[in-house]
Amino acid sequence: MLCAQRASAGGGTTRLLPRGHRGNPARTCAACADGKIFDNTYKRSRPLKFKLRCEQVVPGWDAGVAQLSLGEMATVRMSAKAAWGKTGIPGLIPPNSDLEFEVELIGVQ
Fold this sequence. Notes:
The protein has helices at 41-44, 59-66, and strands spanning 2-8, 22-32, 37-40, 50-51, 73-78, 99-108. A hairpin with a 4-residue loop joins strand 2 and strand 3 (37-40). The chain is 11% helix and 37% strand. The chain has a single domain (2-108), classed as Chitinase A, domain 3 (Roll), CATH 3.10.50.40. With 109 residues, it is mainly beta. Strands 1, 2, 3, 4, 5 and 6 form a 6-stranded antiparallel β-sheet that branches.
């Protein structure tokens, strides 16, 4: 399950970005369903860089960011199955955790 709820419209018109494009989401705050934050680029002052649809991030992140246009902000919620599933990340994300990401797409290369 994946839900991308838009918080603000972007200035770009690109939707469903092609495979291999680099998405540079910034000001990302990621939390488990219980509200525990496990990642925050506000604190790092550095955007997360990855190639879209190349299995560099969890499937829910790929699918959620692919729906955004440049400059758009959204809340991306995903089930555990679309995230780290049964394994989670020991010491960081419990097994079977649904996740929520606040995302702004700030660049596409």
